[in-house]
DNA sequence: TCCTTATGTACAA
DNA sequence: TGTACCTAAGGAC
């Protein structure tokens, strides 16, 4: 699940269940044991997300930095916590809840300064109130790289992943192979504004839905469908299927080692 | 039981 | 550009 909306939702859910309560911190898998021991009994004081990076704040200035990578998963549950399986990297448990983290790329104890260094190398995040879309456009508009690759570059814009990338380009009719420097200020403004709305809804619903009401199967007079990643989308993982808007076959290609999906008819700008 | 795949990133060459 | 890393689910046998 891990695009930015997932991480912001996790920040909320960790906070709801654990802030202000004495918490046991363990690493049943063993890879985070030493750090966990330092934090056991400490209160979770705050949580924060920037792009796909999650920070759990303990005491005054101790942070657990988590990045789920491609495989990482988080599972919440009510107490009592079941015996952990041997892939649980990090477990928090208090009187009412537990949460297990498996398979993250990163789970590390960091200082305020180290946390700041991570913020400094990330671009603006559409889900953060402090985000400056002009900073992202400054990079986009100077680049010969494709807009599809730029949207995945976390230094340019933080939190967009393969699903939001594909879907936002479809929603704006933009050919994914256009160079960043050919994206107009008005187009960037529309993309950013749309990402803010789509990703906020993603946090709320904990899934990615991008299909406008007028293009739902019901509105188009077609049978209902289920997309296998959990949300309703136009192009992501729909290669060779008919476009929901124009029925052209959705195309797929490798771009920088990731799967790109687009409609060659609708995305002609 | 094995193989493929995945919403990600870092590093080597 | 290729490869390594982390995990689990689904499909082919």
Report what the structure shows:
By secondary structure, the protein is an alpha+beta fold. 28% of the residues lie in helices and 20% in strands. The chain contains 7 helices and 10 strands. The strands form 3 sheets. It has a 4-stranded antiparallel β-sheet with strand order 1-6-7-5. Strands 2-3-4-8 form a 4-stranded antiparallel β-sheet, sandwiched between helices. Strands 9-10 form a two-stranded antiparallel ribbon. Helix 1 runs parallel beside helix 7 (185-205). It is globular. It starts with a helix and ends in a 7-residue tail after the last strand. The chain binds a DNA duplex (13 and 13 nucleotides) through residues 1-3, 6, 52, 67-73, 87, 89, 102-106, 152, 154, 161-164, 208, 229, 236-237, 256-259.
Task: Report a brief summary of the structure.
It contains seven helices and ten strands. By secondary structure, the chain is α+β, with helices and mostly antiparallel strands. The protein is globular and about 55 Å long.
Give the % helix.
25-40%
Report the sheet-strand fraction. Answer: 15-25%
Secondary-structure element series: HEHEEEEEEEHHHHHEE
* Spatial shape: globular
Q: What's the count of strands?
A: 10
Helix count from the secondary structure assignment:
7
Structural category? alpha+beta
Summary keywords:
4-stranded antiparallel beta sheet, 269 residues, single chain, DNA-binding, alpha+beta, 7 helices
